[in-house]
Amino acid sequence: MELFDLTGKVAIITGSSRGIGRAIAEAFAQAGARVVISSRKQLACEDVAASINASHGEERAIALAASISDKAALQALVLQTRRRLGRVDVLVCNAASNPYYGPMAGISDEQFRKIFDNNVLANHWLITMVAPEMIARGDGAIIIISSIGGLIGSDVIGAYNMSKAADFQLVRNLAIEFGPHNVRVNAIAPGVIRTDFARALWEDPAAEAELRRVTPLGRIGEPQEVAGAAVFLASKAGAYVTGQGIVVDGGTTIKGGL
């Protein structure tokens, strides 16, 4: 469908060697985009790129490892993307980290800083690196993968939730700044998705049963279901959407779950 066609677009997706990031990369490639697979480990990135190229043709995906905690590595990621694929049309900031579980009173300064550096500052860095060419071209789409954690409180992942709430505000501010240049900035807020990040929840039968109970759709989400929202926001279908946080959680937040 033309509304969701990404033919000719180049997209960088961080944290795309597995989980939600990989699903987004695969969906973008299926929609016609060329995608940059990026995570910390080059071999893992190459495996995903090879799989996508096997399905969609050579050079539809390239592998460029980069740690989101390393500003120079992110700059190299952007520069190499331009060198090999010519441009950056879409940026998906998906990679994030959470090194601490427990009450806020127990978190160390180092852990607190790591959460905000990786989940907020790194997004700011990458956006600052790609936005100028999008603004000059008068077209671009930036997507931050936030979380429903940014909409609720928690006695276990409080700092992580605060970082995800900050991502919502980053999106709102940048949407105002970039809107006059037709560069759209949005967030996606997944609920519990069947990824390694949430493995402890969906591998525990009792925990999964409780998740099903508090979710109106009665099940855990799949990575591909987040990818669908990303394709919408990156394509013509989402051309009049900016500054928004699209919740993809099976209805959990409206029922007051988690």
Automatic annotation (TrEMBL):
Gene3D superfamilies cross-referenced by the UniProt entry: NAD(P)-binding Rossmann-like Domain
Top-rank taxon, per record: Bacteria
Pfam families, per the entry: adh_short_C2
InterPro entries given in the database record: NAD(P)-bd_dom_sf, Sc_DH/Rdtase_CS, SDR_fam
Protein family membership: Belongs to the short-chain dehydrogenases/reductases (SDR) family.
Name this polypeptide is given: SDR family oxidoreductase
Record organism: Sphingomonas oligophenolica
